[in-house]
Specification:
Number of helices: 7
Distance between the termini: 29 Å
Largest sheet: 4 strands, antiparallel
Strand content: 5-15%
Number of strands: 4
Shape: elongated
């Protein structure tokens, strides 16, 4: 609809609480419109209420105001649409697709231990790229690079799991629905599940 989700943070957060609050906003793709107001497009499933709940789960400072923001004046709306360096992110995602392709080709005849290590490291970098994608609407940024990376990562995930399967079974660990131990935020886990097709 062209609306925005806006966050006016409480002034009381300091130190680790402030860092958690900033990370929560970053993980959900918010950018500062003014020193006191961060925004993102209102295009996520569940709208403002769902974003409010997710921000609280991720550590947004208590007392922060989360609300819908509509009918910005044309100049402010135009400036808001430029807050995301989406071209740099798209370039990184295209580079990621190439890295996945090259990694899979290189590992076709590699030793199992090498394939396990590389799929873990390369896959982890790609997951981070996807987790930090602000999921902008196509009216602000094209989605083709993200969609290509999701497709490439889905295939690479299957390849990586095949490399790890014997090791996981040998140690009695389930491997088809494993999630990375270091993904500590709900949003990252949700996006990882979407990438893996679960």
């Amino acid at each position: 609809s062209g609306g925005w989700v806006a966050v006016h943070e409480t002034r009381g957060a300091r130190g680790a609480a402030r860092a958690r609050s900033e990370q929560a906003l970053r993980l959900l793709g918010f950018r500062p419109l003014t020193p006191a107001l961060a925004i993102r497009p209102d295009n996520l499933v569940g709208g403002v209420a769902a974003v409010r709940d997710r921000l609280a789960t991720l550590g947004l400072a208590p007392g922060s105001l989360v609300a819908g923001l509509d009918e910005l004046d044309p100049a402010t709306d135009a400036r808001a649409r430029t807050l995301w360096a989406w071209q740099r992110l798209a370039d990184a995602q295209r580079d990621g697709c190439r890295e996945l392709t090259h990694s899979r080709a290189r590992l076709a005849d590699a030793a199992l231990e090498e394939a396990m290590a590389e799929t873990f490291l390369v896959g982890g970098r790609m997951i981070r790229l996807l987790v930090l994608d602000p999921l902008l609407p196509v009216e602000i940024a094209p989605a083709d690079a993200r969609e290509q990376l999701v497709a490439a990562m889905t295939e690479y995930d299957d390849f990586g799991r095949a490399c790890w399967a014997a090791f996981m079974e040998r140690h009695g660990a389930p491997h088809r629905r494993t999630t990375p131990a270091d993904v500590r935020v709900a949003e990252g886990a949700e996006r990882l599940d979407r990438v893996a097709g679960r």
